[in-house]
Amino acid sequence: MRRHVSGSGGRFAKRSPGPLPFLLCVLFVLCLHNKAGAQSNTTPYKLTEIFRVGDEARGDMILFKNHKYAAIAVNSLDQLFVGGNGEVPVMAFSDDGDFIGFVGSEGDGPGEFRSSTGVVVGPQDSIYVYDVGSGRLSVFEPRTLQYAYSLSMANPDSPTHPSRLLGVSKKGNLFRYTPRYRSPGNPKGGFDPGESRFDVVNLMDRQGSVAVASIAKLPARENLVRTSSNDESSSISVMSLPFGREPFFVFRDGLLYTGWNDTIDISIISDNGETVRTIRVEHEAVPVTRKEIESMVSSSRTLRSNRRFILGSELLPETKPAYDALVVDDQGHIWIRKYPNIEAEFAKWLIIDPIGRLLGEMELSTNLLLKVIKGGRAYGSFYSDTSGPYVVVYSITR
Known about the structure:
Elements: E1 5-6, E2 11-14, H1 21-31, E3 46-53, E4 71-74, E5 80-84, E6 87-93, E7 99-103, E8 105-106, E9 112-113, E10 116-121, E11 127-131, E12 136-140, E13 147-152, E14 160-169, E15 172-179, E16 198-204, E17 210-219, E18 223-229, E19 234-240, E20 247-252, E21 255-260, E22 264-270, E23 275-281, H2 290-299, H3 301-305, H4 307-311, E24 323-328, E25 334-338, E26 346-352, E27 358-365, E28 368-374, E29 377-384, E30 388-397
Parallel strand pairs: 8-9
Antiparallel strand pairs: 1-3, 2-27, 3-30, 4-5, 5-6, 6-7, 10-11, 11-12, 12-13, 14-15, 15-16, 16-17, 18-19, 20-21, 21-22, 22-23, 24-25, 25-26, 26-27, 28-29, 29-30
């Protein structure tokens, strides 16, 4: 059954005249949802919330484990699939938000997985799920959701491994490779903590072999690494560096969008490795305060347990990253969320057209992360203190 809920308010400021009507419509849709619960109509368009899934406060029995890293994929029928980072198996929903089935199941056999990093809808709506633990890519039928076949991507002798499936093209599958760390005394299997590490994107053919290597290459996520060793054992602990930089990779309609979030500098690359164009947006670096670093450390159990080590590190950055989210819609517009303040209620999103013009900006709740924008609908994940994570889908009307 379709559930209609009025959108809640947001703030939007247009920066340049004459955006396309569809873009204006989408801007309005996405600026309406915030945790304050007010509504502000600033364009001729109206938002109708089609459904939300996983809102425990409304009695929804479907519960999600993750918010930030959970993936949302949408097929040509507007059915959506939610999976990755703790969501096993992948869950499928109709365009009305009704649960229609599971994709795969937990385990080690064909069509099973334990540590999937996401879900991708490929050509003819086939569903792809990559299990990073086994290095296996499973493919499922688009209508029945039944297991079709799988490919092995694992290479135990490589210091890097496929960490995420980015997308599927006519030429093959694009995988992001993330370098492993090597613990003290381990002669192989990764990189020493002090070595330079890079994430790369490779195009894999249908047999699981590399067809085009290093389509894109960016520095790996900045981490803090703590090691210890003695005559009997060694250990390594990897923690996220507060306000550390990281790479972003988004594959959309045959193009790979890449950026290192120290600045807003996005390269657009074809699936054969050729740079199509580069988009740059002026960005003024924002200093990081000691109070903000301590607040971030206190909010994480892992960071909090290593508080003295982290606060004493010389690697702590002096400025914040430029952004922390990147989405590309089906019109080729790039949506970038500027890095929010620690306790801010809103975060600013920039909307950039395919040739680099800044079309507008908006402020959305920091609890809302956009994941997919296509076909006149906006799909996002929202985190509520009372309900936990849930998925929200909007339609656009005049």
